Predict the structure of Orotidine 5'-phosphate decarboxylase.
Amino acid sequence: MKSPIILALDTPQLDVAKRWVDCTQESIGAYKLGLEFFLTHGSEGVKQIQAVSDVDIFLDLKLHDIPNTVGKAALQVASLSPKFLTVHAAGGQAMIKSAVISCPDVAITAVTVLTSLSENDVQEIGFKGNSLESAVDLARLAVQAGAKAIVCSPLEISAISEVIPQHVRIITPGVRPSDETLNDDQNRVMTPKQAIDRGAHYVVIGRPITRFWETGADAMRDRARTLVEELS
Ligand code: C5P
């Protein structure tokens, strides 16, 4: 089975990103390239990652604009054939549909409520429910518009899986391996295993794997291997 771990290639250095792919690919299901990477290296950078090996790409651009603009932006990256392309569910059904039409072979992936937002932020922005209720509403809306995957917090997996069809993939960041000693900025985390047991199909992991690069490629390879073994 393909690994459920999506590794966040959070580095602006293309060479480093390529070496991370090279040493972890046996244990990783897809690689997440975000705004920092894409704004630095563009489509050419994505192609260079794909040239290391035929890996699946999670292109995390979080598109959010009027439907026409998002449709045209999505069309620009359709030829890269990412497995996943993210849009903000809050952009509404017409916007999500526009991305789906532009990229029929890509899983348009809807980001629900950013987990960086506090309950207070959620109220201030004007969501009608709390963050859990809002995430569930946004997931439902996104799937109706054709989204094939949902990004949510581990705490929202169970509630969202009750309202979406089984073929829709649930992807969650905000996970930390049980032995992780990294003291960082993620709050309210779950272990990857807990997230998968609750119904996530993929977990996004960054620093708990990439920090091993400091020790060397073998250490990073072993870390990724251990984490994927813990999930099986
Ligand atoms: O290093 P770490 O494991 O925290 O990386 C997780 C990745 O997932 C980062 O690229 C981060 O931006 C992203 N992410 C997150 N929490 C969210 C949404 C995305 O950590 N709620």
